[in-house]
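User: Round two. Same drill as before: sequence, then structure, for each protein.

Assistant: Same drill it is. First protein:
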Amino acid sequence: MHDFPNILNIRSLGGIPTKDGSLVRAGKLLRSAELSNASPAELQLLARKYQVRTIIDLRTGFERRPAPDPQIDGVENVVVPLLPMKTIGVVREDYNWTEMLTMRWNPDDYDMRRIYEHMVDEATSDEWQTIFQVLLDNHEGAVLWHCTNGKDRTGVVAAIILSALGARRADIIEDYLVTNRYLAGRRREIMAEAEAKREKPALSDRMGALLDARSEYLGALFHAINRDFGGVEGFLRDICKLNAADLRQLRYLYLQ
């Protein structure tokens, strides 16, 4: 999607195959980084060309207040902060740039695997139910979801949606890792800023865990789902509250 120079990491899940030979419908499921820098023309493109009808904001209030989602005629904004309160002390947002660059941030305090596990524990049940209800209610147009940089929370939501649609794990991981290409420029900027500070030796060498999308993070996510719910089917049933009819409806709406 090259129409959005001011929206980082924006792309569609369209074309991803499922185990039964179907494909995710083009232009129905969109993911991105935050939208606060989007131009008026880009916002109109989202609504008119791409037919976005609902935007799901996965950020915390701490992140939303200085950079709220824009209001677009005909588009509903739904706030679904996916990080449970017990996680807020671990990471307040995707990439704590301010803390990093003022040297108050300690990368050793961040366990990305644990953060991913928290996004699929029982405390997030209401959020997952809201996300899937939006998808089930969307009979026309597209749904877009985002966090700050479209990497972690956005990537987890994409992974769970694709799992519900029957995508193969390898294809889910491949889509998740595309983020590293889309955010490469932003990563270089942050690394250069950290290098320029030179106040904390080797800080830039230790930032990768927070800056990157890594397959082991999704591995930790699915390990937690298998451990706590017996697999994706159990997670969709017990946490997302989806029954067989709901799953059939999702596949009818979003597969071809």
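Second protein:
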Amino acid sequence: MCLIEVNDAVGFVAVLAIILFSTKSLGLIFRHFGLPQVLGYIIAGIIVGPAIFGDFCGFSIIGFEGNGYYSLFEIEKGNDGLEIFSKIGVLFLMFCAGLETNIRDLKNTGIASALVALAGVAVPLLLGFLVSLPFGNIGLGVENLYRCLFIGTILTATSVAITVSVLKELGKINTKLGTTLVSAAIIDDVIGIVLLSLVTGFAKSGAQQENMNAFEAFKSTPYGTIIMIVAFFVVAIALGWVVSKAFKWLDKRWPNKYRLSIYSLVVVFGYSWLAEKVFGVADITGAFLAGIVLSTDHRASVYIDKNVDVEASTLFAPVFFANIGISSITFAHIDPKILLFALVAVIAGLAGKIIGCGLTFKAFRYSWRESAIGGVGMMARGEVALIVTQTVTATALGANALGNEFMIMTVLLILASSILTPILLKVLYKGVKEAPAHADLIDPDD
């Protein structure tokens, strides 16, 4: 039952208008209260979609066919338009994350950042896996080990943006601890993306797929998965050397021209297609690597990031986050066991970062308070966790895929970490006096 059936481009444009207005309005409200705008985007999707008003009140602004409630705009479940916009949005987000990754800075941060990042991945991954094992009654447990690994993989993500904003506000961004913390958060996401590719690759190899040709059958075997993942990174790096040289030449000949942004889109979409369709690696890995490749030319990457981020933040990314709320979250028939597991997983995700990263900071002779700051600083989650969750619920993973009902876990994790991280950092930093990042290299007699 609907007033307007969305079956053409004009109808879809009206749906976009509703999504953009609601996401921006809620995003600004959340930002006013110091929370990530992405949370506002998701909640906007929940409000305009059927999750609350459709299921409980019998009316929604945007609804799906055949669900028994009245909606102003009715679209097909898995509407191609929303899915395409959402896919472009997630690729843009990962591409921009890659562009903002400074390889030179990562090299200069030393082994401390790398080990903190490794601990920040390993401990939440292990805890997420372990807390999933007793929940066989909701599709996890020992009979679904891949799904348990997916839960752990979701918990490994870190939000650099939240931590950076708090450190800037406190004037601690250029301290030794602050520099190590930010670098570790960046490396954490790099490791997490590689881990996602490995886990989803093995999950695809374990899924039963019919009518596969010889090449697809090879990729579906465990050894084929490993070979294809390694091959992708080799090809991506080799191709990246050529692409990097080409963009440096373009930037030198035509600096700050919009053609750079256009050609960068060719690279990100090409890398994404190559990753997913040829090598069986997650398309977001390809988008992320495309950003890292272009980040090697700093001036060009800043210009490209500025232009692509405008397109991503104003149109595609809001649709991606809103679509999560519209199509992936429901409260009407949610299993209480799912909610119980979500709470347990959120606690494991928060504790995993604090314990793993905090103890690693302590191993590098930071004080207990500074180590606690390091652990809490790595605790925040954001858009990467949502992207990973969406990836592990993809139908391409077959029977190993997580159900959409687990999206509520990620939303609660982002909400809890986004609220707690700024509060705890401000409390822990009281009374801490730190020298600048490179003060240990200054001769006191100078």
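The chain is about 70% helix and 5% strand.

User: Perfect.
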